[in-house]
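Write out a sequence, fold above all:
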Amino acid sequence: MKIHHLTLCVALALGAAGLQAKTFKWTSASDIASWDVHSQNNALQNGIHAAVYESLVYYNSRTFKVDPVLATSWQQVSPTQLRLTLRTGVKFHDGSAFTADDAVFSIQRAMAKTSNFAVFTQGIARVAKVDDKTIDIHTAGPNPVLLNQLTELRMMSKAWAEKNKSTEPKDIKVQEENFAHRNANGTGPFMLKEWQPDQKLVLVKHPGWWGKAEGNVTEIVYTPVKAVATRMAALLSGEVDFVLDPSPQDLPRLRSAPTLKVLDGVENRTIFFGMDQFREELPGSNIKGKNPLKDLRVRKALYQAIDIETIARVTLRGLGQPTGALVAPQVTGWSKEVHKRYPYDVAAAQKLLAEAGYKDGFEVDFACPNNRYINDEQICQAVTAMWAKIGVKAKLRTLPLTTYFPMIQRYEASIYMLGWGVPTFDALYSLQSLTRSVGAGGDGNYNVGRYSNPQMDALVERTKKETDLKLRTELLTKALALQNEDVAHIPLHNQVIPWAMKKNIDVVHRADNRLDWRLIKVN
């Protein structure tokens, strides 16, 4: 990144702040994959991007109601037309003004073929500039969650993207990079100073930011550290201020340390397994000419062979709430009925396999991340042993986040782990991404097992346009129940997230497991 202008701005800001300059040093297991804000949709990356790139609206960290950000107000002109008034006096980090042209461009860019954010543009037919400070979003039909979707659509400079040949998002399925992959130019409270992938990320305060922060941080230093023991040692020694993902086994020691504190909260994220239900034959399997995972009895057998209570107690040490639903309780559409799991029953699982013609089991590829979710690799190791008891020989391979997600999106895993948060707090976000047949406009964008059921597709399409909120909720619940009946995925648990930090750090815990950079205080 060319940082001459940036360096001058930072020097002036720190000079004015004098001794009040505060650095916030934090760590977690993963790094981000790109600085292109429409390239890869994953929660850690989206949360970090939000420090630099702002959206038109964003969730309030304390109430989780939608707050104005780059849009100051909005009006539903008609059931299919939302008018947004944009904030005046906003500057990008390169000094250029934020206008309606940038807002229109950014939303259209999020709708591009290479974007991973089409699920957030679901229902948008077109975006139009009314004047320099007003835009209209026209939808194909009424969309009751459009504002929620806009919380994840961050704004880019049209001129900057055009100048740097980054008008299209970087395609995460290929190696080629665009300028926006390693460089950033947002309107947010922090600017990108340095990014060494898998090593170090440095953000510095934007002196020209339009807003007023409650926090006092002037520099953010992020160091991804895969080894949990190393992360814990860094916190205990004072080398870092904050750990996003402390190890469950270390929590008692952290809670009792006089210089540290732990904040707990239930995350709006469900961990589950997906299965390839598309290929006629699974690569690397000893079963030739057919795909066992296409058989409902096999999928149900895999489900019932998992002792989720033991995983929650032993592997997660209480940091997971077992569930049979694809979404967490905070999400519209969830019900106690869809939350019920199929019972853990090894004998029933063996019987189902035998009925399906696999009494001796089979071999299958099994892929998991090793630095994304709480004890993800250990969970998959435990499940591998459980499946072995029914004769299923899962050949486990684990990968870091940055290579794992592109791999599964290339449909290269037979069974895979995924965790899905719900930024809209509405089950349509999960159902459209995970259970809708793969198609355009975000349909099935993370349905990497390629499950397909016309009844599910019809429910998802109805829900996209239904304005009767009671009926809409019933449709969502019905779709979640259908996912359970089909065992389209195997739900495991909802994550419980502890954050560990020094006692002099003040943060607000969010259900989406992301920090609000505007609120952090170093006392």
Observations:
- The CA atoms of residues 231 and 370 lie 15 Å apart.
- The radius of gyration is 23 Å.
